[in-house]
Amino acid sequence: MDSRASFSILMLLVGFSQAFILPEQRLADLLTEPEDVDITTRILETNNGSTEILLEGDLLFPKTRNALYCLTNNCFWKKNANNLVEVPYIVSSEYTSNQISIIQNAMASFHRKTCIRFVPRSSQIDYISIESKSGCYSSLGKTGGKQVVSLSKVGCMIHGLIEHELNHALGFYHEQTRSDRDQYIRINFENIAPDMAYNFVKKNTNNQNTPYDYGSIMHYRRTAFAIQAGLVTITPIPDESVSIGQRKEMSDIDILRINKLYGC
Fold first, then answer.
1. Fewest CB within 10 A of the end CB: N or C in the chain?
2. What is the pTM of this model?
3. Phi, psi of 194 (to 5 degrees)
4. 174 marked among binding-site residues
5. Domains and CATH numbers, the chain
6. Is 159 annotated as a binding residue?
7. Closest C-alpha among 104, 132, 134, 131 to residue 118
8. Which residue numbers are catalytic?
9. Which top EC class is given (predicted)?
10. Digit-coded pLDDT (tens) for 194-242
């Protein structure tokens, strides 16, 4: 057989194999992103110039409550008759089919590991609306009625970043602002512009007897909000070499907290 014909047949077979790729393989492909760009960098760069008032980079103002410390339970999403927590959602038609697949794959990671179920909205009053606005951001917990989770088509279509914003919608703060953080990290305020220091204010959080998680999908990188490139704003203690600010997938502790919070 002619070598060119053999090559053409080989390429055709490769094309067929890609068309029938297994879901697990497809998810692995979606998770493969350049290692040098973490969630914090992508969020802050994408949200630069946003018309929204954002706290800590990607939380819609005002933050009146959070599911980790909610006295009335109104900021929790509710369980259905099957003991599954339903979060109704709609997705804007402005996304491509591939972008919708990325969003749905991020949702599916919650389905596999927790009792959270993101379900297409029918007539539910409380729901999230996933839209491509000017950045990557979310409200904190269930706020009632329609609440926007912004996932810009340019900059936010990353598996771990989408998990990050959906975790905010479930009610979770950033890890570096939890109430006991001073035992585990040092905030270097001298490397942070005074008008940006509010992004590091500790929150009144119920930590559910779970350990501080340097590897949380909700932890910002060590140079977040630095006044100059390369300056460290978050230092792990006592071991400064500990890695923080990953961007791939929810950690085991992230998953544990969701399951404890929602009684999975």
1. N
2. 0.78
3. -50, -35
4. yes
5. 39-170 (3.40.390.10)
6. no
7. 104
8. 165
9. hydrolase
10. 888 988 989 888 888 999 999 999 998 899 889 998 899 999 999 999 9
